[in-house]
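User: Modeling request: complex.
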Amino acid sequence: LIETRGIAKVYALGETGLRALDGVTTSFEQGEFAAIMGPSGSGKSTFMNILGCLDKPTSGAYALDGRDVGRLGRDGLAEIRNDKIGFVFQAFNLLPRTTALENVELPLVYRGTSGRERRRRALAALEAVGLGDRWASLPSQLSGGQQQRVAIARAMVNDARLLLADEPTGNLDTKSSREIMDLFVRLNRDSGITVLVVTHDANVAAYARRVVRFLDGRIVSDETGAPA
Amino acid sequence: LIETRGIAKVYALGETGLRALDGVTTSFEQGEFAAIMGPSGSGKSTFMNILGCLDKPTSGAYALDGRDVGRLGRDGLAEIRNDKIGFVFQAFNLLPRTTALENVELPLVYRGTSGRERRRRALAALEAVGLGDRWASLPSQLSGGQQQRVAIARAMVNDARLLLADEPTGNLDTKSSREIMDLFVRLNRDSGITVLVVTHDANVAAYARRVVRFLDGRIVSDETGAPA
Ligand SMILES: Nc1ncnc2c1ncn2[C@@H]1O[C@H](COP(=O)(O)OP(=O)(O)OP(=O)(O)O)[C@@H](O)[C@H]1O
Ligand SMILES: Nc1ncnc2c1ncn2[C@@H]1O[C@H](COP(=O)(O)OP(=O)(O)OP(=O)(O)O)[C@@H](O)[C@H]1O
Ligand SMILES: [Mg+2]
Ligand SMILES: [Mg+2]
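Assistant: Request completed. Predicted assembly structure:
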């Protein structure tokens, strides 16, 4: 599904650039479940943003589903995102003056799904993360973990083939974390969705079959093991 | 240092209120180090915001350093916050178009500290969290864990007597988490600062001498044990 070759990302910072990614070559097949780990600042979110077509590399090549993503313009990238990719951001990125339900509906609005079907699917996704009763709450009325779960619901509602989750359990208690990871395992196993999870938590990484570790903008290890 | 009696917080939500806190009575002495734990939505951040004078309870009493905080107006509360309390928010709350250094300086600006002393102390706090070389970066140029560490530096810079840290390690890798918790232990042990840490991570809670657990807006257990 995903193939990268020599991806680099250099941010202009002061007099020198900052190399957030320094030649990342890897691939992920459809149906994989992988954890992405590494120290703070090692390039994980930068890599995830590129995989999710939210950002472009400075150099290197990225093919998604056989298609060279580097050649796409803004509209092509947006189309891919809306159609293929569910994203859980590290900073949740909920619209602030918008209810939980409307936040979760948003990918379907971009898709042109009808109002009634949108609402049905958004409510089902909220119930799957234990927040059906809070559908009318604004983000400011939700705890940190509750906001995170709304973001997870939004990522799952468009039946994307690729789910990129950047620290999806950072603000969740152990029980909620397990429930979310069990959801991701079901999506992966039953629907064949490719799941990549950035995490600092070894208990979360243990759900994945493969662990890719970053350090200073590079992949330093890539281990495939038995599922937990 | 802290004494609460029957603290309740009811948010107006739809036709009924939502009881985020339901009669919390507890106390924390100067020099304590306690972890606050509990499921998502159990009232931890709500309680921390009240202890930090960022919000008021619906009912109940709260005395900080012998002073009835409920009787204070806005200016009195702001004075207490700026003078006595360092706060690490769950959502980091950095000013977006402001450098890391300027964000960390902010409590000292409110204090009227001179520019040169402000800058010296802010840079020292950034170096203590491993980000001295990123002092000129805006929050948008920092990773999630780096932003969290800037927030921690800001909480420590005003030599507050009380440090309230809401999920300070949620976005940090294990090594960075240990470094931050070691910093907190040193502040507690060497300077007598009272430290309350909300966390979902048992490894982080293990640094505390006391663990207070919330469930559905109430304290359900309060255990004192040996330090880790
Ligand atoms: N927009 C930007 N401009 C400049 N530098 C950036 C930008 N975004 C990220 N960086 C820098 O690039 C490096 C990698 O950042 P990235 O967010 O990918 O790290 P990360 O592995 O996700 O870290 P964390 O675990 O803290 O979330 C960091 O040093 C960061 O400060
Ligand atoms: N401004 C608000 N308006 C309405 N309800 C709120 C508001 N803030 C919090 N709540 C609700 O109060 C309850 C407690 O929230 P709180 O943020 O204290 O939980 P928490 O224990 O910090 O959870 P987490 O671990 O997810 O951060 C939750 O049900 C939440 O939705
Ligand atoms: Mg990150
Ligand atoms: Mg909270």
